[in-house]
Amino acid sequence: MSSRRQVPGPETESMVLQRLRPWALAIVGAMALFAGTSHAQAIDESQLLPVDEAFALQAVAPQRDRVELSWAIADGYYLYRHRIAVEVQGAGFSAGNLQLPDGEPHHDEFFGDVETYRGTLRATLPGSADPGTGAVTLKIRYQGCADLGVCYPPQMRTLTVALPAATRGGPIGLPGAAGNGLRLPGLSPAGSGDPLPEAQAFGFEAIAGDAHTLLLRFTPAPGYYLYRERSSFRIEGAPGIAAGQPQWPPGVDHHDEYFGDGVVYFDQVDVPLPLLRKAGPATDLRLVATFQGCQTDGICYPPMTREIALTAGVAEAASTAPGIAASAAPTEAEDTRLAAALAGKSRWVALLGFFGAGLLLAFTPCVLPMIPILSGLIAGQGTRLGTSRALVLSLVYVVANALVFTVAGVVAGMVGANLQIIFQKPWIVAAFAALFVALALSSFGLYELQLPAGLRARLGMLSDRQRGGSLAGVAAMGALSALIVGPCVAPPLAAAVLYIGQTQDPVFGGAALFLLGMGMGLPLLAFGAAAGRGMPTSGPWMTAVQRVFGFVFLGLAVWMLGRILPGPALLALWGLLLLAAAAWAFTATTHAPCTRMAAIFAGLVLAVAGAAQLLGALAGGNDPLQPLAGILGAPQKQALAFRTIKSSDDLDRELGAARAAGKPLMFDFYADWCVSCKEMEKYTFTDPAVQAALADFVLLKADVTANDEADQALMQRFGIVGPPGTLFFVDGAELRGLRLVGFEKAAAFAQRARQATESR
Q: Which of 190, 218, 415, 663 is least surrounded by CB atoms within 10 angstroms?
């Protein structure tokens, strides 16, 4: 007579099994009868392991045509082969017979001659998945015993296993991770509702995919979910290597009363994590991952931190991004490469590189308007300044500009809010344009016309301070210029912000931004010193110079308003300004015949240009450089047919549709106030070679002009500091190495697009 006993199990599972298998009730009853009449020594059930520790079940689908099951069987325990069964729940996956290896022969007094398994059991469920099926739900039954002479009741588990994507580029499988894809943690007794320990509720794994990528896998237990926005990653123990922006796949929209709207994941999710590094040998590193999740019944866990030791492979200088042919662009986009340089061993050399990048940026359309602003401030002094005084004014202007530029970048890196973008709101742009108009009217001497003495005195004091008489006024203008006139995002700025955001090192990142700003301001210092030396003394020349800068200030006001006004209205303003300048040139008094002739000639040119702008505006034109293109019947360049989206939800929907259609996708960030964005539209996107390279692409555009919450969330999702930014996606995943920040000429951009196509 047997001394084996049953271990009490989850009552609901036993009841379900008894209802489904009436014969199982008889077997269990017989076992209990023999156990109750046994005269053998009683067994201490506290010596037995919980069932999910005695038989730890795991499941993973390495391919869409099979699911692999494995049990880790504790020492002193065994499973019955004939008591193992698997059923597929629902449609979408047609399964064959479960394939089990041969077991050890065993004679059981109840089941007769059977086979059992000890140690590890691996089984395969072959089948075929429908194209649209992303997961398969399995009902798994099994039963085992302990050598102590105690048998567990039949067990039943329901697991949902994620299937690999049907198309290439889908969720990344972790090489060598069979049996670690979906964990079955120790379950609480059915109906108890007790939350699992955090290590069981949220499985986490990571491996080094290649020299530039880590592959992360999160596995929430059934009934649990993970927040995308509550996660962060950093690299420790490896100087010169930093974590890039994680590439999360589309998730489930979720509203939380504490965290607001966000994206969560209920099922297993694979996340590529780029590594910001330069060429170098294989390196040991430690990944520190922080994330947070909840149980569906409302119980939330505090932020969890996991650390995993890894080895990043050899990084070659000419290595390529995953999935990109060897002829493609380097793995790292320019902003990523520069951010890696800041984190590398040659950090101080990288700082010099940022200063040099600032020098190059000084001659871009975003920075050039600062030259007439500074010139107007110096000219507004009204008397001969001299080189030293002009240099001091220029230095104050440049340092204030660089400091505010630095603060804006550090804030963007730490909290994801770009102050320069915030200052592009229409009312702020209009107010700054009005300031330029006020400076222009002051340069014209109009404040002396019929104005009350008190108001005239206040306006005069304000004008003098802003025009150069006060260092504080010059500093204020420099600070405003950094926020209003220079919102363009170039790779160096994006790289510094990326470095600050990933390393939480605002000091070194801020130093890079400050040197970038000083590099942009160095030509201004030279120009200011030269202007101080060349300024004429008081007299008719000085008056003429002030009038010229009055028109310059009006031109800056029109340039500012171009960010918020429609094209024809902007053309009309340019036309009126040029005609006004022509009228002044005709009436300017000078005694020198040559100077008089030059003024008349300049007036004629300005009059013709102004008339062309007005005619172009009346014809509905919008290009100040080609105002009569529509009237003269010049061939119009064909614009790309972008589809405009607004939110992350829109993007996820379009990514899914493009992936289903097997098409690559290009996603462009644009804003009306972004000068480089308009350059891309005018010179790059209209080029026939670019359009041919993008012929098979789904074209998306995010217009972030409003900079509202949806715009900010979309930019923060990809770590975009501000427009322009162009991203390429294949099979729903971004090709981070091909990301473009800033303007690029047509030929280089066409090659970039072709590389994205070749990566499929």
A: 415
* Largest Cα span, the chain: 132
Q: Which residues contact 440 (CB under 8 A, 6 or more apart)?
A: 549, 550, 551, 552, 553, 554, 557
Helix then strand then coil, in percent of the chain rounded to 5, is 45, 25, 35
**Amino acid 331: pLDDT:** 45
User: What average pLDDT does the segment 241-263 reach?
Assistant: 79
Residue 305's SS3 state is strand
Pairing of strands 66-73, 182-183: unpaired
* Domains in the chain: ranges and CATH: 5-167 (2.60.40.1250), 198-319 (2.60.40.1250), 347-566 (no CATH), 643-758 (3.40.30.10)
Whole-number average pLDDT of the chain: 75
* C-alpha gyration radius of the chain: 35
Structure letter (DSSP) for residue 468: I
Q: Identify the burial level of 428 via C-beta atoms within 10 angstroms of its C-beta, where 0-12 means exposed, 13-18 middle and 19 or more buried.
A: middle
d(CA 360, CA 490): 11
Question: Is residue 216 within 8 Å of 271, Cβ to Cβ?
Answer: yes
**669, two tokens:** 């960030």
- Cα angle value 323/265/237 (rounded, 5°): 60
Q: How far apart are CA 103 and CA 110, in angstroms?
A: 18
Rounded distance, CA 689 to CA 647, Å?
Answer: 30
Q: How many CB atoms within 10 Å of residue 167?
A: 15
d(CA 354, CA 492): 7
C-beta separation of 730 from 739 below 8 A: no
Q: Report pLDDT digits (tens) over 335-382.
A: 666 776 676 666 777 788 888 888 887 777 667 677 777 776 766 555
Distances (CA, A) of 489 to 365, 470, 481, 549, 721: 12, 31, 15, 28, 7
Angle of the 22-37 helix axis to the 11-20 helix axis, nearest 10: 120
Angstrom CA distances, 96 to 63, 71, 567, stand at: 15, 20, 65
Burial label for 175, CB within 10 Å (0-12, 13-18, 19+), is exposed
- Dist. CA 430–CA 425, nearest whole Å: 9
Q: How far is CA 202 from CA 61, 160, 222, 266, 467, in A?
A: 19, 15, 10, 10, 62
Q: What is the pLDDT of residues 180-200, one digit of tens each?
A: 333 333 333 333 456 788 888
pLDDT at 37: 38
Which of the residue ranges 436-440, 548-552, 652-656 has the most confident prediction, judged by mean pLDDT? 652-656
447 DSSP assignment: G
Q: Is 725 helix (H, G, I), strand (E, B) or coil?
A: strand
Spatial distance between the Cα atoms of 356 and 523, rounded to a whole number of angstroms: 12
β partners of residue 664: none
How far is the C-alpha of 571 from the C-alpha of 380, rounded, in Å?
Answer: 28
State pLDDT tens for residues 218-239: 999 888 899 988 888 988 888 8
pTM: 0.51
Residue 58, beta-bridge partner list? 70, 183
Tokens 């102004």 — which residue? 610
What per-residue confidence (pLDDT) applies to 413?
Answer: 67
